[in-house]
Amino acid sequence: MSAQTLSRAPVRLRAALIVILAVGLVLAARLFYWQIVRWDDIRQRADKEQTINATIPARRGSIVTSDGLLLAEDEYLYTIVVDPRQITNPSDLARQLAPILGQSADSILTRFKTDKPPIILASDAPATTGEAAADIENQTGMAGLAVTSRRVRVYPGGAFAAQVVGFVNTQGAAANGVERFEDANLRGVDGSLSGASDALHDVIPFDPPTSQPAVNGADVVLTIDSAMQRIAETELANGIRDSRAQSGSVIVLDPKTGAILALAIWPTADLNAYYDPGNLQRLVDSAVSSEYEPGSVFKIVTAAAALDAGTVTPNTTFDDTGSIYVGGRLIKNHDNIAPGRVDLTGVLQLSLNVEAAKMSIGLGAERFYQYVRNFGFGSPTRVELADEVGGDVKSVGDGRWRDVDLATNAFGQGISVTPLQMISAVAAVANNGNLMRPYIVKQMRYANGTVFNTTPQVVRPVIRPETAQTLTRILSNSIIAESTNKAVVPGYRIAGKTGTASIPIPGGYDPIGTIASFAGYLPSDDPQFVILVKLDRPQTSEWGSQVASPVFAAVAKQLVALVGLPPDNVRLASK
């Protein structure tokens, strides 16, 4: 090496040292920036990107009848997918899957060779299939086989008690019936899983994750008896067919507790096909969400108020000339009948609008409407069914009420109610004057083992017990005296009232269509069942006594046979 080369060496060395020092300073500056200046930002991003959060879904509770018939439950459907490229022994896998899928091993193996992966061997398969395939996946650890599941809400009864149950859509939103009203209890509370994850978002095993277990939803037991519900649905369908009505409903109530034993609506639809646009309206529970003018069934309430207030007695006689003017409007009886002198039994037997108007006028607006509201009209019943409405009762001074309303409301015109309100009011008379809160949830069974039983609740006494008993005798006698009424149940004395109501339309009332109904209870001396039948726009007859009463009788005959209730002469003789 020459002297000149040696003299240049320190210069190169110094240059190299300067470069190294400069690079070191830059790196130190960057480290300071990221580790000191931006440390909080980096830590937050790291926490976010290296933490996995998963939801543990809660199971939605089931819905069953009082006698254990399953109406709604959660079910898991499975999808089985195969990627043949990752399978070391396709023939063995095909052989194991064949009996599970109900296919031949050769056909499965052919698909492995011809279909483009991933290959879906089964979609929305039942639990037996999915769980068996999952066992193969878990036991063998076989790559290329994947079994996934999704939870769906199913309704084993189909259209049975459909409007009572309601449904849950694929997004998990509840609609109608008990499903929606008790959604918070049925839904439960989802759990959670969180922990540190690696770059592939898998939980790091040596960094224990934290979890909050899911709390499954409560199971709901209804007051509905499946046999009674079947009777109500069958006889309602028969009544619709025989009368050629557009729609209708039947409700069966226990007057002593308020428990709803059956609630049938027609037309109906399969809850499993709720998504069909034509089914949505059919699945609405019109017994609580639709108002109607009840017609002469409402005379039970008017007679109860007048008897309880003492403005009439069973022996009061009425001179009925067939019409009366109230507030400048002419009130007439049906078919323009003018029976002359009648007592209260005759008023109800002949269903005289004129005498009902006289009774409400005799009470005066304040007392009449106080009784009406005490019977529950104008307010929701608070039953455990979604979308309940309160009906429409006008009030003096509300800007809508007119003098004539005092008369027409007395016979169920110009006042709107729900079928459940109407049957609850009739049940109050059957229950010695005590209005019960109707309920359809008998029991709630929570995941922690707690069981809540619904306790029957007296809303209020609406009339004195002696008034209720007197009115029951009058109603019973009026049914016996009304030879055209078809509500007779041989061997049992019943109490009840027919209704034939006009249907409001813009500008007045439909000149053709009516709502035919019958509300009654039996045995009249110790009522076990209150039954309301409502048929909308029947074609064979407009009268409740001709089309609704036979449905009442058909339901009542089967109910007393179902529970083994002896005929009156046998039952009373044993007392």
The low-pLDDT segments are none
CATH superfamily of the largest domain: DD-peptidase/beta-lactamase superfamily
For the record, the CATH class of the largest domain is Alpha Beta
Radius of gyration: 36 Å
Structural class: alpha+beta
The CA-CA distance between the termini, in Å, is: 137 Å
Tertiary shape: elongated
Q: Write down the domain tally.
A: 2
**Largest sheet composition:** 7 strands, mixed
CATH fold descriptor of the largest domain:
Beta-lactamase
The pLDDT mean sits at 90
Count of discrete alpha- or pi-helical segments spanning 4 or more residues? 21
How large is the share of residues in beta strands? Answer: 15-25%
Helix percentage? 25-40%
Please give the CATH architecture of the largest domain: 3-Layer(aba) Sandwich
Could you characterize what this model shows?
The chain has 575 residues and is of the alpha+beta class. It folds into two domains: 60-86 and 93-154, Penicillin-binding protein 2a (Domain 2); 226-573, Beta-lactamase (3-Layer(aba) Sandwich). It contains 21 helices and 23 strands. The strands form seven sheets. Strands 2, 3, 4, 5, 10, 18 and 19 form a seven-stranded mixed β-sheet that branches. Helix 12 packs across helix 18.
